[in-house]
Amino acid sequence: MLIQTENLHSVDQVSEVAWHALYTRHQHEKLVADLLSRKNFSVFLPLYEATHRWKDRIKKLWLPLFPSYVFVKGGLDRQLQMMMTPGVHSLVAYSGQAAAIPDEQIEAVRRMVEGPLRAEPHPFLKCGDTVRVTTGPLAGVEGILVRKKNRTRLVLSIEMLMKSVAVEIDAWMVERISSADSVFISSHVAGNPLRV
């Protein structure tokens, strides 16, 4: 599941239509996404389903895939309006400039959450084998293949946020690629890399 609105305005500068990340207050991601979409910003908030157990009940919740982050496309010309939104803490920046998230990374995350496979947050990784999915709903998506509890997972990392997402996948559905071929995925994994 995802929360997404497309309210793009025509702009001349490439940086104005790039994806950016907003850092939000803890557990304010849905509120921020809703308020920004009401202000006609193009917003992307990927969610995943989680089961929480309490003493007296079990409940399924939709939680942000990247806690405390909301993605916004463009809108830097209205940065003050964006930053004055309740729940917004800051715009993710690098060397004082708004950090652009590559479209390929956003599209890969979108395909993960819209697809039939279960996506969930994963610790950020920096060492291992980079692979490309060759078949199925994630065909063409690049990531890192890891093993967790005798199951294989494809891990997609958003390097600017130092956050990752994992989805279960069969090892036969991927092919190894060299790090030079990879456009947007880190070529390293911590832990137990799976060799294909």
Query: CATH superfamily membership of the largest domain, which one?
Result: NusG, N-terminal domain
Q: How many strands, which pairing sense, and closed or not: the largest β-sheet?
A: 7 strands, antiparallel
Mean pLDDT: 82
The CATH architecture assignment of the largest domain turns out to be 2-Layer Sandwich
* Fraction of residues in helix: 10-25%
Distance from N terminus to C terminus (CA atoms, Å) equals 30 Å
Provide the fold topology.
Elements: E1 2-5, E2 19-24, H1 29-38, E3 42-53, E4 58-64, E5 69-73, H2 79-83, E6 88-91, E7 93-94, E8 97-98, E9 100-101, H3 103-114, E10 119-122, E11 130-133, E12 142-148, E13 151-158, E14 163-168, E15 174-176
Give a quick summary of the entry.
With 196 residues, this protein is mostly beta strands.
Could you explain the architecture of this structure?
With 196 residues, the chain is mainly beta. It has two domains: 2-101, 2-Layer Sandwich (Alpha-Beta Plaits), CATH 3.30.70.940; 104-176, Roll (SH3 type barrels), CATH 2.30.30. It is built from three helices and 15 strands. The radius of gyration is 17 Å and the shape is globular. Residues 7-15 and 182-196 have low confidence and may be disordered.
